TrEMBL record:
<dbReference type="InterPro" id="IPR037079">
    <property type="entry name" value="AF2212/PG0164-like_sf"/>
</dbReference>
<protein>
    <submittedName>
        <fullName>DUF1905 domain-containing protein</fullName>
    </submittedName>
</protein>
<dbReference type="InterPro" id="IPR015018">
    <property type="entry name" value="DUF1905"/>
</dbReference>
<dbReference type="Pfam" id="PF08922">
    <property type="entry name" value="DUF1905"/>
</dbReference>
Length: 98
């Protein structure tokens, strides 16, 4: 499964710096991922994915957020720097299950 979407980068509220920056996947895509991976999730309910933002592609995990019902995707500093993006920016992403 591959999903392409736009989302705003946001900071984890427990941190004051930009070391924990995320995007939330759309709810409908999150529901579909949950259905597809029902018994195959890893620690903390994580799911392995390959992500593309701009010209940068990397592998990571997405995590379920119990508050919103969506999966959240961490966007590491190296990616943000390479793509000149920061918290508050809206970015186009492609996320594919691995």
């Amino acid at each position: 499964m591959r999903v392409e979407f736009e989302a705003e980068l946001w900071l984890w509220e427990a941190r004051r710096d930009d070391s924990w920056t995320f995007v939330s996947l759309p709810i409908d895509a999150s529901d579909e991922i949950r259905e597809l991976t029902g018994g195959q999730r890893r620690g903390f309910g994580s799911v392995r994915v390959e992500v593309t933002v701009g010209l940068t592609t990397w592998r990571t995990s997405i995590f379920p957020d119990s508050k919103s019902g969506a999966y959240v995707l961490p966007v590491k500093r190296a990616v943000r720097k390479a793509q000149s993006i920061e918290p508050g920016d809206v970015v186009k992403l492609a996320v594919e299950l691995v």
